[in-house]
């Protein structure tokens, strides 16, 4: 990790791997969408509505994963003072917020025909909504505080305190009586989903992960450029 | 996929909103990246030019 502490070295590596990551993401999306819309059978109870899970579940996984990345980066910033840790956390937040919004929106589109309601104040849904608020709050801190070091200090605390919500989202279906179905992929005893539905789900999960990786690298590159602009402007004022 | 099956509108809406949000997010991130990198490069060149 310290090897990547130099922004110039990070940019060199990011620029080299980005075309490959974009290509891998595109390819996995093609395979995943084929599996989701053509190869996977309709569910015997849910019918065609089951196809919503191929966009809903990966979005929910990514919403949790990206927040974990932000919390991990915040730890790196506090403990190791890694120069790119705050950049990584800040760049990840809007992407995670988009995934979280998609998990809620597509879940709602699944809930209406299956549960008869767009929304219920269920433990899983509510904790996921709290996660979206945490993302928005984290992003608001960076926007509201002009001084970057002060903003970074407060943002790190919000990322770490908010991380408490991640296991709550994950285990909410086990801890409380929930309308939402329990874990069916990442659970002790293995997945409970039939392989014909599981493989497109896992491929879509990989596609979402690769898309996040590509977008995150680009967003980090932008953030490094933004900081360089700030430094150059300050230097210009100093020169006058 | 059976397009005549019930609730296909919900399926189409879920895929539509996912495509829209992800494509929009990618566009915003890529356009911001292009703008900021060009600005940083221009400022860097200007600074070199202004250097005594």
Radius of gyration of chain A: 20 Å
What class do helices, strands and sheet pairing of chain B give? mainly alpha
Largest sheet of chain A: none
The largest inter-chain interface, given as chain pair and residues per side, is:
A-B, 37 and 30 residues
Low-confidence stretches of chain B: none
* Class from secondary-structure proportions of chain A: mainly alpha
Q: Work out the helicity level of chain B.
A: over 70%
Report low-confidence residues of chain A grouped into runs of 5 or more. Answer: none
Q: Give the topology string of chain B: H per helix, E per strand.
A: H
How many H/I helical runs of chain A?
7
By DSSP (H or I, 4+ residues per run), the number of helices of chain B equals: 1
Largest sheet of chain B: none
Distance between the first and last residues' Cα of chain A: 38 Å
Instruction: Quote the average pLDDT of chain B.
Output: 91
**Which word captures the global form of chain A?**
globular
In terms of quaternary structure, the protein is: heterodimer
Question: What does the radius of gyration of chain B come to?
Answer: 22 Å
Distance between the termini of chain B: 69 Å
Mean pLDDT of chain A: 92
**Percent in helix of chain A:** over 70%
**H/E topology pattern of chain A:** HHHHHHH
Structure, explained:
The complex is a heterodimer of chains A (240) and B (52). Chain A is mainly alpha-helical and 240 residues long. Chain A has one domain. Chain A contains seven helices and no strands. Chain A has helices spanning 7-39, 53-79, 85-115, 123-144, 148-162, 165-175, 195-239. The longest helix of chain A has 45 residues, at 195-239. Chain B is an all-alpha fold and 52 residues long. Chain B has a domain at 26-52. Chain B is built from one helix and no strands. The N and C termini of chain B lie far apart (69 Å). Classes of the chains: A mainly alpha (240), B mainly alpha (52). Chains A and B meet through α2, α3 and α7 of A and α1 of B.
